Amino acid sequence: MMAFTLASHIMLVPFGVALPFITLVMHHRGLRKADPTAMLLARRWSAVMAVQFAVGVVTGTVLSFEFGLLWPGMMGRWGDVFGLGFGVEAWAFFLEAILIAIYLYGWRRLKPWTHFWLGVPLPLTALMGAFGIIAANSWMNTPQGFQLDQAGNPVNVHVQQAIFTPMFGPEYWHFVVAMFLTAGYVVAGVYAVGWLRGRRDRYHRLGFTVPFTVAAILTPLQFFLGDNIARQIYHKQPIKFAAAELVWDTDTHVPEYLFGRLQEDGTVKGGLKIPQLDSILAGFTPDTQVTGLSSVPAADRPTATQATIVHWAFDLMATIGSVLILLALWYAWCWWRHRDLPKSRWFFRCAAIAGAASVFTVECGWITTEVGRQPWIVYQNMRVSEAVTPTGAASLWTMFGVVAAVYVLIFGAFLTVLLKMRTRWRLAGGGTVAAESPETDTPYGPRPELATTAAQSPTSAEGPGRAPGDSE
Amino acid sequence: MTADILSWVLLLAIAAYACGGGVDYGAGFWDLLAGGAARGRRPRWLIDHAMAPVWEVNNVWLVFVLVLMWTGFPDFFQTVFTALWLPLALAAVGMVLRGAGFALRKPTRRLAARRVYGAVFAVASLLTPFFLGTVIGSVASGRVKPGTVASADAWANPTSIVAGLLAVCATAVLGAVFLSADARRFGAHDLVGYFALRARIAVAALVVVGAVGLAVTADDASYVHHGLTHGWGLLLVLLSAASGAVTAVLVAGPALGWARYSAVAAVALAVGAWGVAQRPYLVPTSLTVQDAAGASATLQWMLIVALVALVLIGPAVTVLYRLDTRGVLEPLTDEDVTK
């Protein structure tokens, strides 16, 4: 259940963290060049941001409830050790909520540049929030900063150590870049679909280029960060690394498996076996020793099924990441040679899929880190079974059913509303629908030059909905 | 020492949520009672208009309360969430439905769909404060001890139920008072009296439920009852009652704006009275603040983080509420996103 709500929430996180940034980039461009198309895009994106943020607030609140409802054991014992990260997050989130309210509702009455500058701290608060959450999660992966007394309770809490755990740095940057990347690809993907459907105006061009450029610059960076975090896991959480790479016996010259399934007896069925590669990836020479799953008792490691899940999630993440790099290179090449977007329809097809794929990748990354830690909730310190609430399984499942149903409804409704907004905007762009709202004055007051340029650039448009197939 | 300060911060945050969130839930409560689509159109328009810019911020107070609980007082957090599993879970579901209903109602056009979202929003606005109220009641009655397992007895008892009803009444008062003031601000003069009348009815209901509560807690939650009827607790209760009375008077007069402050004062003082009454316990007679406190290093850092955050957030909140009361914050209209 936690898994489910977290998985739902994490889908929204890229947009919460990065959409403000991309919107601000567009907003800046609009103000700087007095570009009405860019301003229109920024306004529409902020309208989407409004709905998304509301849903994010709700799922976030529920999450903090669930820590108590599901893991009272963990919070009771460890809350004071690693909870500070959440404290930072709560304040950052608070600040973000305030600023986002000002930004969203300030379009009409604030001075243009004042409005923009009030929005600028938004991505910073989002980064602060991410700081808190990742601090907590990386602590669960590599707990430290405390000593255990006789009864097994943590004493002598050392706060700095508990926040800046070994996994914190790699995990934080990997996560943050992933968020920006995903949001960029998803937003760009929406306009790529519009482009494929023949809407090749400036509006779509701009709506595609800005987010896609952000994402394309970050993709190679993410590749290095991802590689780095994998090596950190190899050092700090060898069992998780073993699960992700399906290593059974501790050995040197370990082969790398692409996909494949781990059997109970430690053999791997199916998949592509590349000799020695795993050792090379972990330590740059074939002689590197990699710890295997069988080095710890069965009760202290993931089951074969869990290991397979982790392995698949890990491999899918790496594969998609590599494909995205190729896409980014394609884009960079065309830009370098022609100062233009690629002409090929295939490029836009790939770009459209990239949005959905990167959301999927985020889920994969999350599965890798969470399932890979099984059966521990606090790595080598507390098992999931010790942390879970004593409430009966039956009532837990009932609850889960209710929450799942509610979430399906909410996300369904969320998508429907976005699609409705899109349709409305597209129709309005065609000039067929008069605004139904009673309040019709232009934002920032009358600006004649804006109106005339707007007339020249047709903006029949697909608004930011989500890429098709994005609702997994 | 640090633990004491933090427990007061916690109480303050709860009071802030009771006031901020209370206004929200109250608005939802009146949305529920606004009548059919035609009759309730104007009140609902006002509710949407008034709540939109600030409801998310109000909601974050709750996140803050929870975080403060599990970081500062992990044992307390564990106890409450284990024993009061069901009401808290129901409150959480209510919160999801409510937020989603509200957020999705606005961009929706078709009347049928708006009705569904609106109904969800309104019903959930009733359930969430009720269950959160019962949680407070259960804690106050001392039924929740460390190690208690989840059971109906922990929350289906007179004190809890009365506390739940009290919470609903309080949100109704807050909602009506704020909406009445907002109606004047937005120039909807017919709604000023509409909500003022409802505010007075809600104050009356609050008084009745409060009196019942005092009677019930005499046996059922004797420790808190004693605290509420003696010393500082009594003083705060009296002040809270006085603020409530002032609210009822002000809300119909020209000084309508001040009624908001007195209503907030009444609710905050009531929360304060509860906190004072159960000193030095977090859970009366079984878990003290000192026993529940987490590691002292963390508590100190928590205070530092809170101070830094206060420096950052203080100005931001001021700007937000100032912009909001000046009417600078307006939602984007369709014009803005279609041109």
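Chain B touches chain A through 76 residues (CB under 8 Å).
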